[in-house]
Amino acid sequence: MLDHYHYSKTCTKDRESKISTEKTDTNHNVDDFAAQTKTVAGHNLDPTPWHLFPPKTFSDETRHARAVKIIHCSYLACRYVINNSTRFPRLHSAVSTPKCPEFFRWIHHDLDPWARTRISMTHLDESQKFAAFRVVIVKGRLYVDMYYACVQSRAIFTIWGLVQLLRRFPGMVPDVDMMFDCMDKPSINRTENKDMPLPLFRYCTTEAHFDIPFPDWSFWGWPEVNLKSWREEFRDIKKGSKNLSWSNKYPRAYWKGNPDVDSPARTELLKCNHSRMWGAQIMRQDWEQEAKAGFGQSKLSNQCNHRYKIYAEGFAWSVSLKYILSCGSMSLIISPQYEDFFSRGLHPLKNYWPIPFSNMCESIKHAVDWGNTHLPEAEAIGRQGQNFMESLSMDTVYSYMFHLITEYSKLLEFKPTPPPSALEVCADSLLCIADEKQRQFLEKSAASVSSVPPCSLNRAGSDIIYSWLQQDERRKAI
């Protein structure tokens, strides 16, 4: 009896030991597998080598919990997603499709380098050297291949925007294969790459670069600086712009931002901070301190109390342009070097007042003095800027994305196929991998199926674009 008891007890211990070992082995397997999985949140990714930033940290979870989350979000969250290839709902024949805004013509200009050569897989392979991630859409499903981490939550929110586009226009978005970079400065120089232009999507471009501008992440929110989706922010800013009548707004030019971003324009602008001498109030923004204080002093809807708002580029282009124009103040734009997808639709002295880089302080003072002696005209410029931004609704943003992707897809000379290392991404997987604050912002910016099709894109034609470019060169020469 004792021998039997001893044997049973020994067997039980052996089984427990075996289960414990198997559990440990399983945990190690899960950890090892997760350590090889790259996510849009930045897990297991290094910062882009062309724009370094501190590596991302994920200290809010245990190692094993994080591993389980990575695997679940990356491989299981999209398992039962309804296919977006369901066709766009048939509309009544009486529904007329409005024409797209004039600035949509830049789509053809941006894609013109590949109009004759088309885009081969070799183009994509070379573009990958400058990309943070790759997006492939096949039959309404979206796949992402991550190469490098994007700063903050840019990757999640950019890809979320693409997922919402598929939801907005189900079954309409064509199969496509695109390389994206998520950092600020364009990288495909036209002179250096003239023999083989490389297609690379990013948030801005210049006339000296082939980079293709695409709507930036902040249209769906920017949790790190507490900026809500564009629809919410514009609504609040426009409401805040009415707190004071034009005649009661401060007769000064106002700027608030971070000057410590290697920006020549902002460094020079600091010299203009003198209300009596230059008519300007320049405020330094410390985002780290502001985050600790709960963003109480950075609410954009409370920054529309001046007749004039200044826009100065940062490290490159800045998302602040759309918020500054939204105030309805007369925007003073310091000769921008970079362009985003919509800024090329702005007209000087109609939507804004141009400020040259040279003699910046004197030019700001001149604009302020002119506006204060021409109140109706200055107010009209501010109102036209605000009207332009109001016309840039999310419907317009999604239409631009749709037409840009559609026109780009026509240039591909190969059938888009997700690479083996790509993972399917959907709304559920992005919400799964996001942290709590990111998830709140994403959910509030979710789209629904549109009741109308995208706007009607104008025919391709370079003449009007080249005339705009010539006008711009003449303005710069003045």
From TrEMBL:
Pfam families: Glyco_transf_90. This is Glycosyl transferase CAP10 domain-containing protein. Residues 172-415 form the Glycosyl transferase CAP10 domain. The keyword Transmembrane does not apply. Belongs to the glycosyltransferase 90 family. InterPro entries: CAP10, O-Glucosyltr/Glycosyltrsf_90. It comes from the Eukaryota. The keyword Cell membrane does not apply. Keywords: Transferase.
